[in-house]
Write a structure and sequence with these properties.
Strand content: 25-35%
Number of strands: 5
Order of helices and strands: HHEEEEEH
Distance between the termini: 21 Å
CATH superfamily: IHF-like DNA-binding proteins
CATH architecture: Irregular
Mean pLDDT: 95
Helix content: 40-55%
CATH topology: HU Protein, Chain A
Number of helices: 3
Oligomer: single chain
Length: 93
Amino acid sequence: MTKSELADKLAEKIKINKQQAEGIINIFTNSIIEALAKGDKVEIRGFGSFRVRHRAAKEGRNPKTGEKVYVAPKKVPFFKTGKDFRDTVNIDE
């Protein structure tokens, strides 16, 4: 499902126009991004939690030349599904 399809579904569900639905989705996603950028954790009960994980610096290899390269430390976003979400997705067919 794309963002546009999600906006269509949201607009239909709560009886608003598509532009308003896209605005709501943008506010939601931007709020999560801003919270993570500040180092906060975002938890949506039943859905999952977003947090930032820290990757340490390491020595890697260039796959083309085999040469050793330095990989700088970095922060990466991480999402962990909630139990209800996992259970719904893993329903036996």
